[in-house]
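G., the chain you wanted modeled:
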Amino acid sequence: MKSTDKAVAVSPRTMRTKYDGVLLTIRSRKSFFEVTQAIESNLQRFHIPKLMEYVTHGDRAGVEAYVDSTSKPMAIFWDFEQGSTMRLAGIPIESKFYLVGNAVIARGLFEYTGAAGLGAPVRICVSQRDGEETRIDMDLPSAFFGKFPETRPSSVPALLDEKLIELFEDAAA
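Predicted structure as tokens:
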């Protein structure tokens, strides 16, 4: 980058924060398809384009109402079916990835740091290898966010643990 008298060179600052996570695994005797069906029938889908209509028009009341209507108790923000691709690659597995959360609850993380977007919504993976039990895996939110110095005062990670564990244990039962 060339600098001029009026321009100031800005160097990025990179910081590494080591942290340990906790992988929470819920196992189920239900099939992969039964577990994903239970999850998807109990959670609404959060439709980002619909949200952006309200945001574009500066309609805070609309945003609030939409978020509230789709986030009880949690919503699926995004999903990705990975199993069919893995099967084509010769790996005998069914697998589906979800981003699950509650935009109202997540405010209690974002008020402390924008880095909350690394873990909210929460990543969930449902999978089943041929001949094995179905498993639901997620980074435990309290462990994930517990290493963010800014989010330590927030009660949201523990609340997410409680709500998500209950939700996914019910889907697995």
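The radius of gyration is 19 Å.

Shout if anything looks off.
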